[in-house]
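Most newcomers find our protein records easier to grasp once they have seen one. Each record describes a single protein and holds just a pair of labelled lines. A learned vocabulary of local backbone shapes supplies the integers on the structure line. Nothing more is needed to start thinking about how sequence determines fold. The record below serves as our worked example for the rest of this section.
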Amino acid sequence: MEDAEKTTAVPPAVHGDWVLFHPVYTPEELRAVEESYRVLHRQPQTFSDKIAANLVKLCRWGFDFASGYKHKPLPPNSTSMSLEELRRGGYVLTEQAWLMRILFLETIAGVPGMVAAMLRHLTSLRSMRRDSGWIHTLLEDAENERMHLMTFMALKKPSIWFRAMVLGAQGVFSNLFFFSYLISPKTCHRFVGYLEEEAVLTYTRCIQDMEAGHLPEWTDVPAPEIAKDYWRLPDGAKLLDVLYAVRSDESTHRFINHSLANLNPKTDVNPFALREPDMHVKGKKLGFERSEAEEYVAESHKLLHQAKADESQLK
């Protein structure tokens, strides 16, 4: 029996290009996300936009209240204060607090893409027609968020109570998002776009804390192996490099979902089915308007036809 178990045991980790498509960033792209006090924010323009934006504000307030978090700008005399004084004053989070916050957010962030992909998959089966490329991008979104969770899980395993809290929150959120997507996919994608704005803001603040020396325990922490494998990071990569990569991913989700919210989910082609803009676009722009998406799709088809023509000439 022991020999059989050894023979059939799966490896503890799988390395290589085994995941769905995802961006791999150059060092320049990792720093291309535009930063400001509130990072980038799309002003609500329609009634559904306002619903989505206010729901995200409510979710953010609820999570901050439950976790006891309140962002406080550093005081004018912060340079003369010790790290312990800054933490006691509520100006800076500890490494443990940041990690718990990130882990919880990533368990929720992986829900929308999977739920939306499943619903569009079932719709495609019922209607017996193609999906115009939306399903793959939504699945990529969900897997990417899950890989964020797997990366930070390498730093610490959550307690049973934390897992129970995640189970309850995930159960409520996934069902609410499921029924909401049936009613208004555009509103749901706008909601996720605003949610990702908050994610970009969260990781920006974490990066700023780390670069300011407020998270000394993380300064020399090497990037987990799963992160180096997933983002193709160099052997000497640190946790800070991982944070930059994750923030770039969140900027991508922000860009994609705000773009999808501008489209007609029943008729329009997903502009990201064949390719995506680089971070010099996604890091400084909130999304494509519908006309821009149409132009991007046309350009993608032109590039594809040109590549096929070049390939046939070589033969």
Q: What stands out?
A: The two ends are 55 Å apart (CA to CA). The chain has 13 helices and no strands. Confidence is low (pLDDT under 50) at residues 4-10.
